[in-house]
Queue: 2 jobs
Job 1
Amino acid sequence: MRIVLVHPAGSNWLAGRKDMTTTANRMAPLGLLSIAAFLEREGHAVAVHDCMGPAAPVGIDANVAQVLAHDPDLVGFSATTSGFLDGYDMARGIKARRPSVGIVFGGVHVSALGAPLLDQFPHIDHLCLGEGERTLAELAAGSAPAAIDGLAWREGGRGVQNKARAHLPELDDLPFPAYEKLAGFPKGYHLPLFSYIQTPGATMVTSRGCPYRCSYCDRSVFKQGFRYNSAAYIYAHMKYLRDRFGVRHINIYDDLFTLNRERIETLCTLLTAKPLGLHFNCAVRVGHADDNLLRMLKAAGCLMVSLGIESGDPDLLEVHKPGVYLDDVRDTVRRIQAAGLRAKGLFMMGLPGETVASIRKTSDFVLSLGLDDMNMAKFTPFHGAPVWRSIFAQGTVNEDWRLMNCLNFVFVPRQIGSLERLDQLYNTHVKRFYSDPGWRRRFRRRIWEHRRSLWFMVRHLPGFLSAMRSFEPARETAEPR
């Protein structure tokens, strides 16, 4: 079967302006690439079309034309919440031109909402719920829809949902993602600025699932289990990226990269004994990063470690990220930097229960940590997250799927009062961090290491200056109160 897998674009970060999100950080759609490699191994002809890629045209019609140029029998969309409607607009365009083409949607948004989507969106033929490799392979092989676990389909004009698909038991059996199917990879795909020294960069995911239950995290696809690639598989994957594509830096986007200590020790031993000449970044959770492990990561080529912190208010942490405590965060950041690694803090503003005072606590806490980098997401309530069940009682919600991407505030906590106020507080905090003399000193000490990021910024200067101006807080709220 001829199959095209599509990563739809989604909405612009700032309406009416050039979208700088993909310019500053364009990630390969790893889930689609994994499915593409699996389907190709099953004997199908597979193409990947990334609507956010460097070679993609602008507009629904132009992207539809490129998909149809592959003469597909089946088109699969992997859509986030914000990208779902763009994907559906493409599906409508495909059906208008070639009604016989099958349309299947998958991804976390689809897995959270399930079969009712088929009743609302008639141009979708099937939904792939949960992991997509085997479900899509069985559909492409011609199996009857009623016999395919993890599939939602139509019977008598109504959406029906089969039993859940069992998780793949052994991730090492999967082929490496089909990076070669991405136009412009790797040079057209950019890691976050100042997160690397060498280029080009790439991304990897080496595990699926998470045993924790943070309030804001949608686990509709991988649930709460934890499965992972072996150290030998990860090393071979890194080596493949280096040898095939010349990659020199890898961001590993596991939620809990260091949860299984034995595999990370083995991986670090491999990377130290047989260096690949590349750097990598990873994320750890408080409680899973002792001094010996951090030193091993440094010796293996790790450059920066990210730490999910979310808030500097202990009351909010108790509700939304239980088991994480501020003193432990301080200690972990200190030990990360003592091991010679960079420390990046990951935060989230606008959680249910957030107040002006809690935002101030977080802003003060961030500066007190002496971080090398920081990311502040805008809390977005996703349908499959535990917090969704109570979100409408805790503030105002704008359920515009196109805006639900952690780059826009779609939820305003009752205690904050207005979207304008929340945006002002966010912009004040971001500007405060990057204006901090301590952070600027740390940045200047690494100015030569940052030269590739700085040169990239120079090449795209007008867009970056426009984006920076969007973070200017109103004068009257220059400091959170």
Note: The chain has 17 helices and 17 strands.
Job 2
Amino acid sequence: MQPHELTLADAAQQIRARRLSPVALVDSVLDRIDQVDPHVEAYVAVTAEQARGAAREAEQEAARGVFRGSLHGVPAGLKDLIDVAGSPTSASSRVRAGHRAAADSTVAARLRAAGSVLVGKTHTHEFAYGLTTPQTANAWDRGRVAGGSSGGSAVAVAAGAATFALGTDTGGSIRVPAALNGVVGCKPTYGLVPRHGITSLSWSLDHVGPVTRTVKDAALVLTVLAGHDPRDPASLDTPAVDHRPEREPDLTGVRVGVPRNYYFDHVDAEVETAVRRGIAQLETLGAHLVEIDIPMTRYIQATQWGLMVPEATAYHEGTLRTVPELYQADVRILLEAGELMGAGDYLRAQRSRTLMQEEWSRILEKVDVIAAPAVPMTAVKTGQESVTWSDGSTEAVSDAYVRLSSPANITGVPALSVPVGHDTAGMPIGMQLLGRPFGERQLLRVGHAYERTQPARSLAPAA
């Protein structure tokens, strides 16, 4: 096994035991980037020389018995909305040409303090305003979409071009590409991980979280990232929690909510079969399945767009008026549409969110987690704009991908996408687990218990 094939947990353990050199690990990942990135274009920029320098420093520290933290010497890719001191934050947009971050974002600083080595910045749909990341190809099929907006991060991890990565999630932008590329994506509770130094899409919906190969890896990264930062007005001062799941989690008595409505409506048959098989596996592990009804489903799409669109337009107001020609057409149209939304529409969306949060809180008193599909279909062909369901109805691809993930953004509850197999075309399928606010430990415990029953997942092919 090559070092780039190791999970984060295994790599960190081997480095701490002095069986693996941080230099060897970083070199292996950089070699893998050279091999696969020309085919998938996961990275905006690769910081190879800086990464090698940081790896040499980490190796020298390890030789003295000094380990900065749990991620010492482990290479990571960061979505190119996340500031790293001295590096460009392009947001995959011409609008940001020449931009260079003056200081680390909170999450970049925390990764650095834990010993992680940045190998590059990963592509996003322009300013995270989309669900496909068009410049990046799916790790399993270059003719299919990567998912978005954290597509570069998910593809890099799936292909072995990063040991782990960070993404952001406003309507599913971590979980969607994680599901479509067969990796784990975690959107934490709103306010758990600070967003200071991260380019915003929608202030009241934005989250930042890890993209990893395994649930255990996600727990390791989340433990490093979580914690209060007063520079983010939404950041909450909560007690520090070690999110790492126990080695052999017991799901006896855990109540898993299985939706009767919404989450299995207009879902591809192969996706539904794989997810229901995953849910059945949780029952085999001791979980108690409870049928539930998802509330206020007719308002979900309107609430998501009613919050996101005007907030995004407000953020881009200056550049939209001065350099509109620098935006890609799809993003510019959405930003211009936001100028047509009135204050009344935005306030109604805020009220709808409050009511939805109250209803979800009642459901989550009856169950410990909810299990459902992460996305309604696997990765579509590049350029496909709509999907036709078995009842003859059609839906835009972007609407379909956000449909099952946006409720967790609206309500702020934590959500986790875990791979549960592939369809007959070989494309990955993801199961979504949703939990109570600040219930990440339970969520990760359930995901880890499921994952331990499955064969080890292989990397996506190199080309």
Note: The chain has one domain: 3-299+342-451.
